[in-house]
Amino acid sequence: MNAHGRWGQGRRARRRLLAWSGLLLLAMAVSLMAGSRWLGPEALWHALWSPSPTNVDDLLVRTTRTPRTLLAAVVGASLGVAGGIMQTLTRNPLAAPGLLGVNAGALFVVVMLVTLGGDLPAAVTHLGAFGGAALAVALVWGVAMRRGHSVGPLRLLLAGAALTALFHAFSQALLVVDQQGLDSVLFWLAGSVAGRPLAGSWPMLIVALIALVACAPFLRQWNVLAAGEAVAIGAGVAVRRLQLVSVALIVVLAGASVTLAGNIAFVGLIVPHLARRLATPDHREWLPLAAVIGAVLLLLADVAARTLILPREIPLGVMTALLGAPFFMWLVRRQGVQHG
């Protein structure tokens, strides 16, 4: 493709990014208005810009729906980008952050803390979940690594699958021993952004936002790595260091997401595919789009989760699974057709 064609594709990708950014603002507004008590635009404007301490709608928006909206947006963006990096790192279109053991490691540590320590402060649980995610990925990396060589994608996925199963087995064993702890970990199992005050969530929110920004310097190198390790080495890319940085970013983004919202399925898998279809193969164009699409999809999924069966709510992780499973089955079938 000539330079003019690439410039035209890039311009279309930037337009789509701008359009999805507008959809993100709209989805955030809908999230602030939606619920068992729907609010109109005028009530939302009043709650955001001239709130009254005695107005029920103002309190609802500022204390409940605003934290929920911010969490859904940041978690969706983080999972979308983490999934994109994971698929580039493994060169596997069916890869997702959970394959590195992030979710399983976080859940195991949370279950262990609940079993041994009972009712613990939220900060301790958050640190434990994030530490469990990091520990799981460190073990996966250690198992997959060969001395003097870069980490092969297949070895990484196999090690991740084995250790994920191991962590899940440990978690289930602890829950069998202490069945009362099951109620305390249902949030992590089902996934949710409801009832999460910003006071206890803002450290992980900041960590996730910093990690999203930290991806920018590596976008060009990921373009080269996507062509294969041999090509990347020939282009002068320090492959092993780039792999390590990529895994670290996946840990921070996915680990923070699990800490904030529990087990959210399929977002990290399907969002990168949507972004690549709407943009060019250049990571500088489709990975920022993946962040925006991920935020929009998780916001809309959360709106659906809290409004479809009023006055009850569907767990957010269940809603994303309901939406993502058909796409995943189509994707598996499409990959089978391409390689059959």
Largest sheet: none
Q: If you average the pLDDT, what whole number results? A: 85
Along the chain, the helix and strand elements come as HHHHHHHHHHHHHH
Any low-confidence stretches, pLDDT <50, length ≥5? none
Strand fraction equals under 5%
Q: Report the count of strand segments.
A: 0
Structural class: mainly alpha
Quickly give the CATH architecture.
Orthogonal Bundle
Domain tally: 1
- What radius of gyration results from the CA coordinates? 21 Å
Find the CATH topology: ABC transporter involved in vitamin B12 uptake, BtuC
Provide an overview of this structure.
This protein has 340 residues and is mainly alpha-helical. Helix content is 77%, strand content 0%. It has 14 helices and no strands. The longest helix is centred in the N-terminal third of the chain and has 35 residues, at 56-90. It is globular, with a radius of gyration of 21 Å.
Quick synopsis:
This protein is mainly α and 340 residues long.
Give a quick set of tags describing it.
single chain, 340 residues, mainly alpha, ABC transporter involved in vitamin B12 uptake, BtuC, 14 helices, cell membrane
Could you outline the blueprint of secondary structure elements for this entry?
Blueprint: H1 3-33, H2 41-49, H3 56-90, H4 102-117, H5 122-144, H6 153-177, H7 182-190, H8 198-214, H9 219-225, H10 229-234, H11 239-261, H12 267-278, H13 283-307, H14 316-339
Helix pairs in contact: 1-3, 1-13, 2-3, 3-8, 3-11, 3-12, 3-13, 4-5, 4-6, 4-7, 5-6, 5-11, 8-11, 12-13, 13-14
